[in-house]
Design brief:
115 residues; seven-stranded mixed beta sheet
Length: 115
């Protein structure tokens, strides 16, 4: 059973930074893709950033140049460094991992950007 545990959310002022981390319980697997999604109140869940085993990354246009995704394949962890945060980045952020076309999700961590 794969479990994903997120950490690092919280309240930050506009222009500030936060770092999200996610650790997978199944260290014996190598996930094809790991990434982050977010869901704001009243909106659909959307992709934030993904990274493959080989290190190829994909970002939503709204976060390009501000967010950086990274992963440690040996530890099955994925991180999201978020800089220059804006109020519109406020959402619940979910860790995602894909293994053999099956998606696994974390419970989510709240990020609130407000003065």
């Amino acid at each position: 059973q794969v479990q994903l545990m997120e950490s690092g959310g919280g309240l930050v002022q506009p222009g500030g930074s936060l770092r999200l981390s996610c650790a997978a319980s199944a260290s014996s697997f190598s996930f094809d893709v790991m990434g982050w999604y977010r869901q704001a109140p009243g909106k659909q869940r959307e992709l934030v950033a993904t990274i493959t085993t080989g290190g190829s990354t994909n970002y939503a246009d709204s976060v390009k140049g501000r967010f950086t995704i990274s992963r440690d394949n040996a530890k099955n962890t994925v991180n999201l460094q978020m800089n220059s945060l804006k109020p519109e980045d406020t959402a619940v952020y979910y860790c995602n991992a894909v293994l053999y076309w099956t998606h696994y999700w974390g419970q989510g961590t709240q990020v609130t950007v407000s003065s």
